[in-house]
Design brief:
mainly beta, Immunoglobulin-like, Ferric Hydroxamate Uptake Protein, Chain A, domain 1, Maltoporin, Chain A, 3 domains, 4 helices, 48 strands, about 65% strand, globular
Length: about 775
């Protein structure tokens, strides 16, 4: 009996010990300076007796790692660039502090011949670190050289302007890209089929991931840009960051000023008014000037290893915007020909306040919560003085405009994962109020313009779900969103029932991605919406010129777009094609006014379809020349009021990056477009050439650029029912810019706020 009891006790102890052993794991966190986590460090698991390699991993963004194995007779080797390699006995909940390497390395220029893009799980991925792109200067320079991006401005070809996230923080202004050194960028992703958690109008999302932070303490980046064309333009950006332990405090500011920017413009209108042929044209000079700036302050507190809290306040101000135009007008009504001059001065001011706050909690590796809140208040006002000078005297018109908006939004996102499956779900609520006033200051005016005071209010909510999972080489993503919106339109304080409405929308999406060696394929279908801006819904009549007025349309409906997209990637080649059917698409239309011989432009709903296709090739030749070619076409099938607008557009984008010794770079980009229809507008052929010379040093960066070197013109025409209009703008000369930037201890932002109500912000 005693022997049996001893055996039972021995077996029980053995089982308990085995269970405890099986429950053990190897985990830890890689740190620097006892407080700064090190992401993407190489962590290797070794046998203790002979240092044989077992497996390896990369530390997460917060520096954590884990291995599902017992620590007995195991070693952990941790290494990272710039730090001494460390080998320690394996254990659970290790805190590993790496010491900086004291080894001085000579400057090495690293070039890469790997493909610029690869498609992974339906997302185009570009690794920047270790390539020539990392030496280009700023994030804007990198983006403009990627084959799927436009070389002028930040736009995804075939998708338009994307949402941009920098380390999971939504970018609020394009100037933020001017403040990110290219050598801090680790990776850029372009998602052309965003999931249901994004706004229903989002066509593309761009993710920029920067490298590990430099360290604690104070850091700053100062950038100055001087430009000269027909005027002198000064831009400046300053970023300040202070990091201590888990707390980041940051301040960003910028200013921009230019004066007497000169251009030449000519518009022509040909139509019939009460049985008479009217040919009206004006041509002359325009001058613009402005002073604006912004300041943003915020903090990010890493409360625990799994929780973080942050907030930002941003104030944007247009101190003074001035526009002066002097035109000579020609009007022929039948056999009567009249000439007169028009001078116009427009002054505008605006101020925008934006407060964002977020909270994130990673409860475990399998479950996380992110909450974002946003409040935005915008004020804008303008005053225009228009004087017509004729032989028999002069007349003056003084329209005054005022716009004000308020937006409140809350968004909650839950993320959970089981095995290879990931589920994102949550909800978002918004409330928007938009007020627009239009008044004629001179009391003796008796024309067609009227004082109006219109207001829009909208309460909206949506719930969404996005499911993704890999089945071997096949990656699937399913999304579903339900949107509810209650919209009320007030004219002069009175509710307009006809213009007010309630929406119920169900927006599904599905995509499949397959990877076979170096070939990646993706096929997707989704429904997304384009809602008219609040300005487009305002019925107030506004003066554009003596021959043209503009009016909103409160009856505009949101556009429901059904899109089928196919993407393919192989080595240096990318292909993209999408077909879209827009139900109740918004198009620009002109009508002849009843009261006066002039035309009225406004947006109307009309369903039509379109297709976009592009083929990109981005090789590397001789390690010093990195070109890219992008051939694209845009074809629409649009017929309205008996007229067709179906001429396809073709374009070629040719980018060239030359890598010279000692970190010198030369950039030459050429964009050519053939005439074709876009909406109801027929744009004419044009070729634009941009060039830049850049030098990258330790903390300094300098760039000399010439934009639109050969003065490409903006020109085109439109035909409507009995109306012909043409448009021509000459910006006079190229723009020469010199940009100098200095960075000291720049830090990677840890802010993780996503910003709520982004779709509504875009409508204001």
């Amino acid at each position: 009996m005693i022997i049996i009891k001893k055996n039972i006790i021995f077996i029980s102890i053995t089982l308990v010990y085995s269970v405890c052993l099986k429950a053990q794991i190897i985990s830890g966190k890689v740190m620097a300076n006892d407080s700064i986590s090190i992401p993407y460090a190489t962590v290797s698991l070794l046998q203790a007796n002979d240092s044989t390699y077992i497996t390896g991993a990369i530390s997460n963004e917060d520096g954590t790692f884990s291995f599902a194995t017992v620590p007995t007779n195991k070693l952990i080797r941790i290494s990272d660039i710039g730090y001494k390699t460390l080998i320690l006995p394996a254990a659970d909940r290790m805190v590993i502090t790496l010491e900086p390497s004291e080894q001085n390395l000579k400057e090495v220029i690293v070039t890469s011949v790997r493909p610029t893009f690869k498609m992974k799980q339906g997302v185009f991925v570009s690794n920047i670190q270790g390539t020539v792109f990392s030496k280009l200067g700023k994030a804007t320079d990198v983006l403009q050289q990627l084959p799927m991006m436009s070389s002028s401005g930040i736009s995804v070809l075939g998708r338009g302007t994307p949402l941009v996230y920098i380390n999971n923080k939504l970018m609020h202004g394009w100037s933020e890209l001017e403040r990110i050194p290219s050598d801090m960028i680790k990776e850029i992703k372009i998602d052309m089929n965003p999931g249901a958690k994004y706004g229903s109008t989002v066509r593309a999302v761009l993710f920029i991931t920067t490298d590990k932070p430099v360290g604690e303490g104070f850091g700053s980046t100062l950038t100055m840009k001087e430009s000269v064309s027909s005027c002198w333009n000064t831009d400046g950006w300053l970023d300040l960051n202070y990091r201590r332990n888990r707390l980041d405090v940051f301040v960003s500011s910028s200013f921009s000023t230019f004066s007497n920017s000169h251009y030449k413009r000519q518009d022509v209108y040909d139509f019939q008014y009460k049985g008479r042929n009217i040919n009206a044209a004006y041509a002359g000079d325009g001058y613009n000037s402005s002073k604006n700036g912004f300041v943003s302050v915020g903090f990010n507190d890493q409360l625990t290893d799994n929780q973080s809290l942050g907030a930002t306040y941003t104030f944007t101000r247009l101190f003074a915007g001035n526009s002066d135009q002097n035109y000579h007008n020609h009007v022929r009504q039948g056999d009567i020909h009249t000439e007169f001059n028009t001078s116009s001065h427009h002054f505008s001011q605006s101020g925008n306040h934006n407060v964002s706050i977020y909270y994130e909690n990673k409860f475990s590796d399998k479950f996380a919560l992110n909450v974002d809140g946003t409040y935005a208040h915008n004020d804008a006002n303008g005053k225009q003085t228009i004087t017509d000078i004729q032989t028999d005297g002069s007349s003056t018109l003084i329209p005054v405009t005022e716009a004000r908006s308020d937006l409140g939004a809350l968004k909650t996102v839950f993320t959970s994962s089981v095995g290879d499956a990931k589920l994102e779900y949550g909800f978002e609520t918004t409330y928007t109020r938009f007020l627009q006033k239009y008044n004629i200051e001179n009391r003796d005016y008796s024309g067609v313009l009227k004082t109006n005071d219109n207001e829009s209010k909208q309460s909206a909510a949506n719930v969404f779900m996005n499911y993704s999972r890999s089945f071997g080489k096949l990656y699937t993503q399913l999304g579903l969103k339900y949107e509810f919106a209650n919209y009320d339109y007030y004219a002069g304080g009175k509710l307009c029932d006809e213009s007010s409405r309630t929406y119920h929308r169900i927006l599904p999406s599905v995509s499949f991605s397959y990877e076979l060696n170096r070939l990646s394929l993706m096929l997707s279908y989704n429904i997304y919406t384009n809602s008219p801006s609040y300005s487009q819904l305002d019925e107030g009549l506004q003066y554009i010129s003596d021959f043209r007025y503009n009016k909103g349309n409160s009856l505009l409906k949101p556009t429901y777009n059904h899109e089928v997209s196919f993407n393919a990637s192989y080595r240096d080649i990318q292909f993209m094609c999408n077909y879209t059917y827009g139900k109740d698409a918004m198009i620009t239309w002109f009508d002849v006014m009843e009261q006066i011989p002039a035309v009225l432009s406004r947006d109307v709903n009309h369903s039509y379809s379109g297709m976009y296709a592009s083929l990109s090739y981005a090789p590397t030749f001789f390690k010093v020349w990195k070109p890219s070619w992008n051939l694209w076409t845009n074809k629409q099938w649009l017929t309205y009021n008996g007229l067709s607008y179906n001429r396809p557009q073709f374009g070629l984008q040719w980018k060239n990056l030359l890598v010279l010794p000692k970190n010198w770079f030369v950039v030459v980009n050429v964009n050519g477009t053939l005439r074709g229809n876009s909406d109801t507008y027929m744009s004419q052929s044009s070729v634009r050439t941009d060039m830049a010379v850049q030098k990258n040093m330790k903390n300094w960066w300098i760039k000399l650029s010439a934009l639109n070197m050969f003065n490409a013109k903006e020109k085109g025409y439109s035909k409507y029912a009995g109306i012909y209009t043409s448009h021509y703008v000459d910006y006079r000369q190229p723009t020469i810019s010199l940009t100098i930037s200095y960075s000291f201890n720049p830090a990677k932002s840890k802010y993780k706020g996503k910003t709520a109500g982004q779709g509504e912000l875009n409508r204001l």
